[in-house]
Amino acid sequence: MRSLGAKPLAQPAPVWVIGTYFEDDRPNMMTAAWGGICCSDPPCVQVSLRKATATYHNIMRNKAFTVNVPSAEFMEKSDYVGMVSGKDADKFKVTGLTPQKSDLVDAPYVAEFPMVLECSLIKPVEIGLHTLFIGEIKDVKVQEQFVDGSHADMAEIKPIIFAPGSRRYYTVGDQIGQAFSSGRACMRNGE
Amino acid sequence: MRSLGAKPLAQPAPVWVIGTYFEDDRPNMMTAAWGGICCSDPPCVQVSLRKATATYHNIMRNKAFTVNVPSAEFMEKSDYVGMVSGKDADKFKVTGLTPQKSDLVDAPYVAEFPMVLECSLIKPVEIGLHTLFIGEIKDVKVQEQFVDGSHADMAEIKPIIFAPGSRRYYTVGDQIGQAFSSGRACMRNGE
Question: Can you tell me the ipTM of this complex?
Answer without folding.
Answer: 0.96
